[in-house]
Every structure is written in structure tokens, then in C-alpha cells.
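fold-stage: in
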Amino acid sequence: MKINTNNATLALTAGSQKQFPRDARPQVALSGRSNVGKSSLINTLLGRKSLARVSSSPGKTITINYYSIDGKLYLVDLPGYGYAKRSQDSKRSWSQLTEDFFVKNPSHDALKLVIQLMDVRTGPTDDDILMINMMIDNGIPFVVVATKTDKLSKTALTARIAELEEEFFLGTGIKILPFSSVTRAGKDELWSAVSEAISK
């Protein structure tokens, strides 16, 4: 499927399951803790500076944002998780919303891939591991993306990726895709993974 990534808009902001789109357009969701770089990744993928707003307050977004790409694909920005300063009511709100996306989504069959983000320096959090295990248990296709790789030298990055794969994903077949919104490293590889997923 050929997609013009320059033709991208924020199509829908959903604060409840009732607002989820019901069309069959392929969906690629982004999951990860607050402040892991989801908005920056979206802007980098689409070659835009501020289509997805980068919040100065981690954990502020508690809605699901659907970005329409050329009318052929939704990039779905799920609420970030794991931000300690968020109120308990707010945490429950986004937790339920994210759960509804996976469990009560009327377009569940349209979900082709989840991009699971983690900070390359800290590795996966307990919440990241829970999310990954949930996707494995439910047969949801996903790719693990390590963000902020520009913070490490090339040699340190190679060693760090190998270390993370051995510590967390040894024997699983899961590979980590390095990504930087600063240098745009990994952009083409991630688009290739998206293209492969939505063509199935």
C-alpha cells in the first residue's frame, strides 16, 4: 500500500470507547510510558514538527489520538502510562481507556501493529513488560522500539541493544529497533515494519 505521509491530520480524539472509529481502516498503535517519546516519534515518522504535540508535562494526555495518514491508515497514540504524579482517578481513566482499546475496540480486527516504545537507557519498565506479555497472550502483533538512541554513542548503543535483548527477550525472537527523533535513525526501518504489517 502506497501512502503519502505528508497528508496527515489529527482525525479524532477519543476520551471513551464510544468515540472509537468503526471503519475498517488499518490501525497502528503506539504504546509506552509517559515521556518515552511517542509524540516525537509520530512527528518524525510523518516529517512534521508539531502535528503531535510534545507535552512539557509528562502524563498529561489521557485521550487516544487518531492520526489519519493519507486516508489509508490510522496512527493511534495511546495514553502514556506509569507517571507517578498523575492522580489515581486520572490513572484509572487512562488505564480503562487503554484497556477498552484492546478489549472493546469495534475495529479490533483493523489493529495491525503496536509500536511498543521504551527508553534505550532505562530499558523496559514493569508496565512495558506487562503490556508486551498482554500482546503476546492475545496474539497482537507488535514491534519493540528503543527511543532516544542519540543519547548514546554508536558503540555504546550497539552494546546496550544487545544487553537489553539478552536480558529481556532472549529466546523470544523479539528484536529491538533503535530509533531517534533527533537523528531520524530507524525511521525507514520502522516504516518498513508498518508497511509489512498493514499489507497482511
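fold-stage: in (second)
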Amino acid sequence: MNAEQAIDFESIFQYAPVGMCVSQNRIIRACNSDLANMFGYKKEQLLGASFLVLYPSPDEFERTGARITPIMNAKGYYSDERIMKRANQELFWCHVSGRGLHKEDPHAAGIWTFEDLSSKRPVSAELTPREREVAALLVEGKTSKLIARQIGLSPRTVEMHRAKLMKKFTASTSSELVHKLLGIMR
């Protein structure tokens, strides 16, 4: 690349091989076609829309926003794998990474990437919003005690959700459950 050539950041954003968006207070202000296609929307439908449209439920939208705030305040960025929702209501696993642009208020403005994991990890059971939240934290390798602390439940309640997940996925051990959640065993 010639040093005199200008870098076209708009093209980089639009043609990135992952879904990308810029947000302000959890409102999508700019997005690329990959993001719109991944979620089954036209770009114009997402511009000005709340991230809420990408979540399976309003409760999950609120809890995720609250959960990531202290992490982004401490680190400046956030990344996880979670179940998201397409425009046609289909649920799918998605890797989400983001960085706040204002350290003092991580939701004020941010840049986010989304990677569709559905080809590697299908959503194969009907899960409640809380089960989806616990499942996402289990695949991160967190213990019931850590999950309980992170989402404000008792460890016993988390164990109850883990037991329900094990039954739904016909897993006999926690390790088998995590493997099934990751799509390693089908």
C-alpha cells in the first residue's frame, strides 16, 4: 500500500468479515451489511433501533446491559457468547465483542462485533431466558458460585437451572452438558 493513499475506513467497516455496529446508549447508529444479514434485517431497519431487537427477551437485554457495565468499566471492553434472536424469531448462538469509546460511560458510545456461531453450535432445546443466561456462562467455564455472584442469584438457584439444562440436553455430567451446549456432541 502506498503511504500516500488514504485509508478508507468506511469501506473497512462495511466490508469487514463480521457483523459490526456503532452504538450510542445501546441504540444502533451505524451497521454493516453482515450484521443486518446475520440478524435478518435490512440495514435501514436497524439504524436507530435499540439493541433490544437482537435479544430473545427484554429481560435478557436489561440483564446483559447491567452485567457488562462493571466489566467494561474495569477493562474497557467486553466479549462473550450468548443466544441472540433474528428478525424471524429464530434463536442462535453469537459471539459478541465490544469496546466502549468513553471509559466513564461504556454504553454512551461503542463499537461492537457479532459472529454467528449457529453452524458450529445450534440452539437445540427450548430454554427460558434465565437458562440461556446460565448456559452462556457455563460455556465460559464458570462455576455455579461464580455464575451466582455475577447474575445475582444464589448458588443453589444456579444449580437448579443447571439441573434443568442437564435434563433438557440429556446430559449426565456437567462436562457433558457444556460439550452439548458447545455443539461438540450432538
